[in-house]
């Protein structure tokens, strides 16, 4: 049987922007695939536009009015002769309706991601929770069905407040989440039953507006937890998922947005934990694979976990897409002894129908990886975005460093205000945690990042915040 990639000349439409668009282009080039990229007016100076023209010529780049206009995206796909669409992350990446339309429209395309049925099933936190409980996978105490009735919601909230008090928690807190949400969005804490109704109304309104779904999930708030992830990859059979280890994403902004990711998720070889950290990592990995097999998961995805201070893991959600932090897992991995793993290339390859071609025993993990999200923001002012232009950007090349960015290094760059002010992702590798941390600080100290706003005030970034947080990574 021929490899589906070899038997048909594919062209991948990249329905995204910035560094992820660049990485998808590079993966397509690695696989010998043609691509077509998109840009909007605010992104005209992005390096993803420069690379698209460099690798594919002017005909490989199309201007659109919005990355969220599906009709415009499909029009470009048809005009360019695309056979597949890669949504990257964000935008349409976890929209099962979009994925279904990709597969079912008259001019059918391949959605580079899980099948729309899997996205619909696991993209809903409540469906995910039901599947987990059916398989004996631990989940956070709380509702396991879409809650739309206000009285039912209040009853669940009261029972969770009472349960926490019975457990000796003096200041119980619950979470109200948009059941179809993700990425830390559509979540609010409630510490008083009297405040619950107004929060419930707010989350329901947000969920209906963003996801066309009023369903909410009401859960107990777990305090002082670590946020861990398991990276899963499977081919279209959905029967042979493998994992590429764990990540710790506990360094976050006030809004639960990740700032540092570390692979693996704990380091019992150099740090002491109040629980069996090795067993926790093994357990969440096994649980994630168990669910992936049951769901027939058929592409790249991430199982997100919270781990309590006593070592209890609770499944939080499944992200049915490639994630920003995929590169830090790839950095510590090798397949059949070959390093330089590219999970985006793997995602495209299996998404186009190729068999996985390896099993879990062929994957080895070595060393420690750290990923820094470098952002124009003010951590000392509630991580508020900084608006202005980058006047100088560069870094010393190192064999232990990979940096992904849409910011030019040879000219000034106005940060688009239409999107989050993410500037770069830096991935550092070390043979152990101590070396990775030392190299991480060395990189941050050597990074040349300068800019100013319209008033001539200097750039604000999170670089100093990242330095401060590096010392304590993986400690719990």
From TrEMBL:
Keyword Nucleus: no
SMART domains noted in UniProt: Biotin_carb_C (SM00878)
Domain ATP-grasp: 129-349
InterPro entries: ACC_Biotin_Carboxylase, ATP-grasp, ATP_grasp_subdomain_1, BC-like_N, Biotin_carboxylation_dom, Biotin_COase_C, CPAse_ATP-bd, PreATP-grasp_dom_sf
This protein's record includes keyword Nucleotide-binding: yes
Transmembrane segments: none
Enzyme Commission number, as recorded: 6.3.4.14
Any GO molecular function: ATP binding
Pfam families per UniProt: Biotin_carb_C (PF02785), Biotin_carb_N (PF00289), CPSase_L_D2 (PF02786)
Reaction(s) catalysed by this chain's protein: N(6)-biotinyl-L-lysyl-[protein] + hydrogencarbonate + ATP = N(6)-carboxybiotinyl-L-lysyl-[protein] + ADP + phosphate + H(+)
Entry keyword set: ATP-binding, Biotin, Ligase, Nucleotide-binding
Residue stretches making up the Biotin carboxylation domain: 8-476
Function as written in the Swiss-Prot or TrEMBL entry: This protein is a component of the acetyl coenzyme A carboxylase complex; first, biotin carboxylase catalyzes the carboxylation of the carrier protein and then the transcarboxylase transfers the carboxyl group to form malonyl-CoA.
Protein name in UniProt: biotin carboxylase
Organism in which the protein naturally occurs: Desulfomicrobium norvegicum (strain DSM 1741 / NCIMB 8310)
Lineage per the UniProt record: Bacteria, Pseudomonadati, Thermodesulfobacteriota, Desulfovibrionia, Desulfovibrionales
